[in-house]
Here is the input.
Amino acid sequence: MSNETLKTISDRRSNRSYKPEQITKDELDALLKAAVEAPSARNAQPWFFSVVQDVALLDEINEDIAMNTQKEKRDVFYGAPTVIFISGDDTNRWAALDSGIAVENIALAATSLGLGSVILGYPDHSLLGPKKDYFAKKLKFPEGTSFTIAIAVGYAKDTKAAHEVKGEKIAYVK
Here is the structure.
């Protein structure tokens, strides 16, 4: 079956190398529109999106991740010029799931626009760590929200084959 949405899903990749060029405002606006149009449980929309294009702040988060994981510092954002951090309502049991749906909308929208992206959970080592409140303030997370997931976006320098689907992952129950 041929369908543009299914093609976008098949074409999406996790890109781990980006050109230093910033995405356009129109591209960013389209990604954020896709994010806020994501479905959420009971239409609660328990998310908040913090767009970071400040290399110094991303580097500070990288340094904190290295300290908290006691691993050598590396760029967990892969040189992407834009990272969107999503925080979720601490009182909403579905906030993390709903944020995951929103981040997938961003990833698919990025692919459809010819952009690369990679979904990131690893920043939790910093954003839920000892400096959680410090970074929540820097990222302008609203009171009562916490980091759920992030996505790095930009013009990809790399590409790779589709991932292999492992084993039988579908059962038909009649």
Notes: The helical segments are 4-11, 25-36, 55-69, 95-112, 124-127, 132-138. The longest helix spans residues 95-112.
